[in-house]
Write a structure and sequence with these properties.
Elements: H1 4-10, H2 13-20, H3 25-31, H4 36-42, H5 45-55, H6 71-87, E1 94-99, E2 106-111, E3 126-131, E4 136-140, E5 145-149, E6 157-163, E7 168-173, E8 177-182, E9 188-193, E10 198-206, E11 209-216, E12 220-225, E13 231-236, E14 244-247, E15 253-257, E16 266-269, H7 270-274, E17 284-286, E18 292-297, E19 304-310, E20 317-329, E21 332-344, E22 354-358, E23 362-367, E24 370-375, E25 380-384, E26 391-396, E27 400-405, E28 409-416, E29 423-431, E30 438-446, E31 450-457, E32 461-469
Antiparallel strand pairs: 1-32, 2-3, 3-4, 4-5, 6-7, 7-8, 8-9, 10-11, 11-12, 12-13, 14-15, 15-16, 16-17, 18-19, 19-20, 20-21, 22-23, 23-24, 24-25, 26-27, 27-28, 28-29, 30-31, 31-32
């Protein structure tokens, strides 16, 4: 290996930066100790920016907070945070808090934290929850305290979605009353009443502005403005049937399905819902499948949809993957649906009840207490049997998978992206409360800094249990 002094004599700054561009973070940190010139070169913004983008493809310029953190600080802080999330040592890596307040069952939660992965010493993880006790509440997970609680509402609240960038929360009660709340103080902003109760809500942060998709139990799909909740369009999708909604990552498509086996699921072009025409119905197409069980969008693709459905005979489960697109021809837009993969699930596998996706090629299925990974072409990658009782929910992002279960635990997994397909590593349990008082976790979510689960306790009541991971302030220096 070349002597550093000899290399210094041979390389100018431009050549030095070129060599440094091939180094990993630990090598750059070592190079910084050679002398002042190498130290300055190793701190170059573009070197650390490229390291961040290589390691976290979802990393965005918008996550940078000018004057508060550099790309180097971002890399070191997030790396340390992920190490702690992978290790999961109580007290040393995270602090666990049980947060009580609701008098009824928590039926939904959503993060309202706006600045993900901003390491400025003021990180806060905040969530909102809705409950059968007829209130919506906001919580500070680090402090384990309630921020605000709404006034008692006329009916139990059953669902919510959040708009972190706008600091808004939208809730719906079992009578179909939709309301917008300010996340900072719980002030009610606007309301809208559906003719019957809602079967689904979807937040749509479209380039044209934030919108809300709401499904009515009568089978109608509503598009509402946010925060005013003004009606933009309404379309009858499946008369007298509950609708399930899924908005695509690029916010250009919404998948709509129902449990009726005689009705094929549809995909709507969201632009036609936001800008309705008096002369034409919103643009949609029906997928060529029946007996739809569940579906998910692939996060790393603009509009790749994975659907689990029954075969034509109804005897086997099939997973089919589609790519969607819109082609403009003169004054008309045509929807393009291309099937890119399809495979039969193994007959010995119990029917999955949950499905998620990671990257562009991997599908996660939950069958009872098992977590099973497939590629979109049907190659089985791994099976995990960590839980003793059924899995109730799954959280997936580019770094981790977290499962909740009735066995009073959350299970944390870590992605390794160094292979052709991501490899999932099982890490550790996060334990809930006493078996005497609690009956298991029903929901789990994470914002990359904390994990929060809904823990059912007693009859008709539940609490939040948060696990907040520590980032040493020294990593931002």
């Amino acid at each position: 290996m070349c002597d550093p002094a000899e290399m210094k004599a041979q390389l100018g700054l431009h050549e030095l930066l070129h060599v440094f561009s091939f180094l990993e973070a630990r090598d750059l940190l070592r190079a910084a100790q050679v002398d002042k010139v190498w130290n300055e070169a190793s701190r170059t913004r573009e070197l650390w920016r490229q390291l961040c983008l290589r390691r976290w493809s979802s990393c965005r310029i918008s996550q940078m907070n000018p004057g508060k953190q550099t790309w180097k600080q971002y890399y070191l802080c997030r790396s340390e945070l992920e190490f702690r999330m992978e290790s999961g040592r109580p007290e040393k890596d995270f602090i666990c808090k049980a947060i009580a307040g609701h008098q009824g069952e928590i039926d939904g939660l959503a993060y309202i934290s706006a600045n993900e992965y901003i390491f400025d010493g003021q990180e806060k993880s905040m969530v909102c929850t809705v409950s059968s006790d007829c209130t919506v509440r906001a919580w500070d997970l680090q402090e384990g305290t309630e921020i605000w609680s709404s006034a008692w509402q006329p009916a139990p609240l059953v669902n919510l979605v959040a708009y972190p960038e706008q600091q808004l929360v939208v809730t719906v009660d079992e009578w179909g009353s939709i309301k917008v709340w300010r996340a900072e103080d719980g002030q009610e902003w606007a309301s809208f009443s559906l003719p019957r109760y809602s079967s689904a809500l979807e937040a749509c942060d479209h380039p044209d502005g934030p919108f809300l998709l709401a499904a009515c139990a009568e089978g109608e799909l509503y598009m509402l403005s946010v925060p005013q909740l003004q009606l933009i369009s309404r379309v009858n999708v499946f008369t007298h049937y509950h609708l399930n909604l899924l908005c695509s990552p690029d916010k250009e498509w919404v998948f709509v399905s129902t449990q009726n086996p005689d009705l094929r699921p549809k995909v709507f072009y969201i632009h036609s819902l936001i800008h309705p025409s008096e002369d034409e119905l919103p643009l949609c197409t029906a997928l060529p499948i029946w007996l739809t069980c569940t579906a998910c969008w692939v996060p790393d693709e603009a509009a790749r949809l994975v659907v689990m459905h029954r075969s034509e005979t109804g005897m086997q489960l099939v997973i089919t993957t589609y790519d969607l697109g819109a082609k403009k021809a003169r004054n008309k837009v045509n929807i393009l649906v291309q099937q890119i993969a399809s495979f039969l699930l193994p007959g010995i596998m119990a029917p999955p009840h949950l499905m998620k996706s990671q990257g562009s090629q991997v599908i996660l299925l939950v069958s009872g207490s098992e977590l099973v990974l497939f590629t979109i072409h049907g190659l089985q990658l791994a099976t995990f049997q960590d839980h003793q009782r059924p899995i109730t929910s799954v959280w997936v992002d580019s770094s981790h998978v977290i499962t909740s279960s009735f066995d009073l635990s959350l299970r944390v997994y870590k992605w390794n992206m160094g292979n052709e397909f991501p490899v999932l590593k099982s890490c550790y349990y996060l334990l809930g409360g006493s078996h005497r008082w609690a009956s298991g976790f029903t929901h789990v979510q994470s914002d990359g800094v904390s994990i929060v689960g809904v823990e059912a306790r007693g009859i008709g009541t539940s609490i939040l249990r948060s696990y907040c991971f520590k980032v040493p302030r020294s990593c931002t220096s």
